[in-house]
Each structure stands twice: as structure tokens, then as C-alpha cells.
Amino acid sequence: MNNDLANPMEWTVTGMDCGACVAKVRGAVTRMPGVEDVDVALMAQRMRLRLDPAQTSPVQVERAVRGLGFGIAPKGSAPERAPGAFVLPGSDSPAEPAAPAPAPRQGWYSTAKGRLLIGTGALLALAWITQLAIGGQVAHWAFITATLLGVAPIARKAVRMARAGMPFTIEMLMTIAAIGALFIGAAGEAALVVFLFAVGEMLEGLAAGKARDGIRALSDLVPKSARLVDGARIRDIPAADLAIGQTVQVRPGDRIPADGEVLTGTSGVDESPVTGESVPALKEPGAQVFAGSINAEAELRIRVTRAAEDNTIARIVRLVEEAESARAPTERFIERFSRWYMPAVVGVAILVAVAPPLVTGAPWDTWIYRGLALLLIGCPCALVISVPASIASALSTGARHGLLLKGGAVIEAAARTSLVAFDKTGTLTEGRPRITRILPLSGSAGEVLRIAAAVEMGASHPMGRAILDRAEADGIDIPAATGAGAIPGKGAFATVDGTRWSVGAPRLAEEAGVMSGEGRAQIAALEAEGKTVVAVFGPGQLLGLMALRDEPREDAASAVAQLSQMGVRAVMLTGDNARTGAAIAGQIGLDHQAGLLPEDKVTALKDLTGGAQVMMVGDGINDAPALAAAHVGIAMGSGTDVALETADGALLRNRVSDVPALLRLSRAAMGNIHQNVAIALGLKGVFLITTVLGVTGLWIAILADTGATVLVTLNALRLLGFTPGKARQGRKAKTAARPLPA
């Protein structure tokens, strides 16, 4: 393998409608020399792999995929229509490359499966008309002709699959069943089975397209054009051509064409297309806005801060599409199961066809017929699609409601959550502490604030910003500081007016030996009120104390109550002192562990994960180690880089109540998956028994395959209408009855 090729190659593959299609593409390409790390995503219509061009060229890869009947085009090129499926003998081969299509969407009747349906339907109708008008041998040969013409394109595809090393496909089983039915005199039923197969294939395609629409709808939120401010002129340009630094005009009622910063204007902006938040957010100069949001009230001038391919919606779409590759354990198990399921059923079908006639002298045509029917039950299409269809629908629904999850593995892990650990600052609280009191101990209140602001100048953490905001509000002249530095988890220091000053937790002052008895008494009183205390001190001198309070989010208490009703415990992990932690935890109504440094949170989570399935919810910045230590890490954040890229998921609306919503969605997705598996295996099992007993025949058997696939896909699509924020009363009662983990 050429190790110089570090980046994978990527193509868009069209025409895939079920898990079996994915397996065919993956199987054909994986067998090629020099090909590694093949990843085929059904809903994203993506194939990614690593390739050594010295052994296999990209053209050979594309030829192999087209040979299976799928369209393929390099990433960035116009999507290619899948080659035609219904081709009369003597016409052009369907394996030839199709012309690139300008858009991926097309009418069902112009698709390969649509043409197969129309062709087989017309042939079957002609055969029936012949039977009604003439009957006899003429009608019999009409059904034979309809069967042979209808099954021809299916047989060609089956042969191509077999040559690619995949003999056990639904096309091969369908071909054997149809031809076998002709040999035992069931020509009419054979023609009907070919038509029903085409119906099922068409319905599979429509259902898969509907599932993809949920993801496409996210991309469609961004307007195609933008009003660029070019000096004194305003002109329309494609939104995709906007560059960072340019200014756009957004009129009332327009969608914002790019992520950016408001330069002029004040208006309410509906961010529900991006975050799911229905209440318009007030945007003033300096505020950040998202592409796809709707300007509701007044004109805004916005400076573009992100290119089109990197705006928030584009990154959300990429996250949802990439999440398809993070397959759930259930999906991986079903894939392994399906590898031996089809050969096993084929083996049973052969035994059913030959054993009774050989052993008991039973009629050959009867048992061959039943064996052929069993072949059609052998394809695991419905079983293979049962998990990815549900996962794709859940990911799309979550994205519409501001709940981002990185794949099926995360959904499955989240559904099992029995304990949620919350960070305090910025998660359970607003993350915007305010100074409520300044207590000078060896100077004035103004001097305490002046020194503290100088030390914290340039700070980005909430405490530092609170000190700087108060200094600005009080009109304090902040002196220059040098030699600034931070003490992780404790505070900061800098040299101001020739003296090294420190600002941080009281324990930092204790370690420096400057804490006084009066200071300890004041700290105890303030912490008992649920306030965080910051000490300002220098060499041998405690200058003063500042008390800050970060109020809990409005929905924090109700969110914890919802978790309790769902049978999920909650605990708060905070670096604050025990008294402040107890005050905030008591106000919200959950357990807590206080006085934790970042490494202490990791240790605490390791202890918690020993007896429970733990989800950690933090701000996605300071809590990265803790998020990684939990079974599932969820970041709070309104579309920030860290919130989208760190952890296993993100809550775009910054709502604590979205945590139970996320759990509801995950549980609903897993419930849907279990239903799908039951449908797929249940129908197969029932029709396997009834076919062996002679109760059902060929046309029912094909419905057991394609019908089950359609039912499973339609059931998965129900998740697109799921509302995670609404608690189901029945589910609440059921989950509340589960015992809480220790």
C-alpha cells in the first residue's frame, strides 16, 4: 500500500436504497487490490476509501461500481444517475456510464427502478390481456415472455454481482426463483413475482429518498443568493461565493446567507432553523449570527466570518452525514448475522426442494416450488436496513431540534444512560457570574477591583470577564500588567505597579500564607449564601475579597426533575467550594461533588462509570477531559467549533432541558430499531414456516422480502416526526419504575 496517500478518496454513489446495496458496493470495491478502509454511507450516498493507484486506478473503482448498476461521480462533481435497470434485449447495456445529472433528484419514473417497474408492469398487463382474450398455450407463452423479458435485467445484475464475488444476492435468488417457476409450469406466478419485485424495489427507493430529504432540508436552509454591499452599491451574488470579511445586507424577512457578525442594525433573529429555538434572539452590533437564520424585524448589515463550506449549517450537515459511519453495536451485530443468514436460508431451500421427493417420494414440482419460494425469503435486506434507517431519521430529527449526536454508537450509548453528570458553570448555570460584593481588607474597594482587573486583563473565563465587566461599569482606570500567567484550576497572577499580585480561589491565598481570620469568616459567610469568593492578594498581603454569583439556568431544575421521572439520576461536578456547590445543587435539586480540579472530575467520572452508564454534560472547552472519560460526552454550545467538534454530541440551544430531550430521542430511536428488527425477522420467520407448509407461495414470499424492507423503512421514517422536547406520559411512568443505579 502506498503510505504517501494519507487522505482518503471520496465519491458520490447514487442508486443505493438499502443496506444490501451498501454491502454490494463495499464488497465489490474491497476485493480490488490496493484498496483499503472502504466506508460506504447509505443516507449520505458517499463512498470513501484509501487507494494505491499503482495497483488499482480511480477509473477502475468507478467502473466496478457502475458495473453493479449504481451511479458514481468524484466528490465535488455533479451526481451521476444510476444506469438504467430495465433494458430490452439488444439495446444498450445498462452497465455503460450514465451522463452526469445536474441535480440528484428526479421523478421516480425516470429512475432505473422506475423503468423496471413500468416495463414489468406493461409486460404483465399484456400477458393478462392475452389470457383473457385468447387463453390456452398462447397466454402461457405470453406469461413466459413477460417473465423472461422482465427478469433479464435482474439476471444481468445478478451475474455481475456473482463475478464480483457476491453470488448470494436478492437479484440472484430472484432470477433462480423466476426461471425455476417457469420450469415447473408456474409461468403466470413467475411474471407476477417479477412485477412485485419491481414494485418493492421502487418503494424502497422512494422510502430511502424520503429519509435523505431530512438531511437535504438542512442544506436548503441557507439561501442561494446574498446581497453584497460593494461600496455604495448593493448587488446580488451567489451565497456560495461570499468571502470572509465581506459585508452583506439582510432585509426583514430574509434568511441570513452566511455566518457573521452584526455591523449595524438591531433586530430580532429567528434562529429556529439552526438551533430549534423558537423565540427570536435580539441581535445588536457585535452579535454573532448563523447562516439560515431569519431576520425578523429590521435591516442588518453583517460582516461574513465564515466561508460557505464552513458555516454552522454546513458543519451540522457534515456532522450528521459523518455520523452514519459511526455504526451502532447493534448494526455491526446484524451485519455479521446477515453474512450467514442468507447462505443458511439458501441451504434450507435446497433441502426443502430435494429432501422430501428423495426421502418420501413426494411430488418434485410441489417441493421445488416451495424451495423456490424459500429462496425469496433468504435476502436480509429488511434486517440490514433496520438499524441505519432508524439512526439516519433520529440524527436528522435531532439536528432539527438542536440536538447533535455523532452516530449510531452514541445514540445506543445515550439510550442506556442511567446517570447524568453536569458541569456547573456554563452548563447548569448561565456562565455569566456577576460581582455582588467587594470586601476590602487592606485597601479600598476601588483598589481591590483595579488590581484584580489588571491581573485578569485579556481573560476569557467567566470569572475574569465578570471582574473586567465590573471594572468597566465602575469606570476604573486599569493599569498595565506584565508577566501574566495562570494557575490551572486555581487562579491567575501578574505584576502590577512593580508588585506581583494574584487573583484566585481562597485556597490559593491559604497556600500563600496571607489568609487572615477575618478573611476566613467573611468567606464562610459568603459561601453559605451560595456565592463564589475570589481572593486578591500580594506578597504578605490579602488586599480583599470579591463575591460572585452565577445563577442557575431557568430550566435547570425542571430538566433534573424530568431526568428523575425517566429513571435517570443527576449529579453536579464543580470546582467551587462545598458550601457554594451545596447551595446551587439544593436550588436545582440534584446531588453534587464540589472542590474538584479538572483532573479530579476525571477521577470522579471513572468512579461513577463503574456502577452506571454515565453521560457527562459540559461546556465543551474546559471539560474536554471529563467529556472523554464518560460513556457519552455532550457539549453545551451554540454552534461553536469546540461544541461541534468535541465530545460525542452538542446541544445547540444551550438548554439543560435538551438533555432529557436527547435521552428521549435516543430511547425512541432504539425502540424503533427493536421494532424494525422484530418486523424483519418476524415476517421472515412466519413466511418461512407457511411456505414450507405450502400455505403461501412465490408472490407472498417476494412480499416477505421487499414488503418487509418497505415496512421497516417507513417505520424508521416515523422518527422524523418525533418531538424530543415532549415527554410521553406512558414512557415516563415506565422508565420511572426502573430501579435507580447505585
Structure, described:
With 742 residues, the protein is an alpha+beta fold. It has five domains: 9-101, 2-Layer Sandwich (Alpha-Beta Plaits); 112-216 and 322-390 and 670-721, no CATH class; 225-310, Calcium-transporting ATPase, cytoplasmic transduction domain A (Distorted Sandwich); 403-429 and 553-664, HAD superfamily/HAD-like (Rossmann fold, 3-Layer(aba) Sandwich); 434-549, Calcium-transporting ATPase, cytoplasmic domain N, CATH 3.40.1110.10. 49% of the residues lie in helices and 18% in strands. It is built from 25 helices and 26 strands. The strands form five sheets. It has a seven-stranded mixed sheet with strand order 14-26-25-24-15-22-23, sandwiched between helices. Helix 22 links the parallel strand 25 (632-636) and strand 26. Helix 11 (381-400) packs antiparallel against helix 23 (658-692). It is elongated and about 110 Å long. The model is unreliable at 1-6, 84-104 and 729-742 (pLDDT under 50).
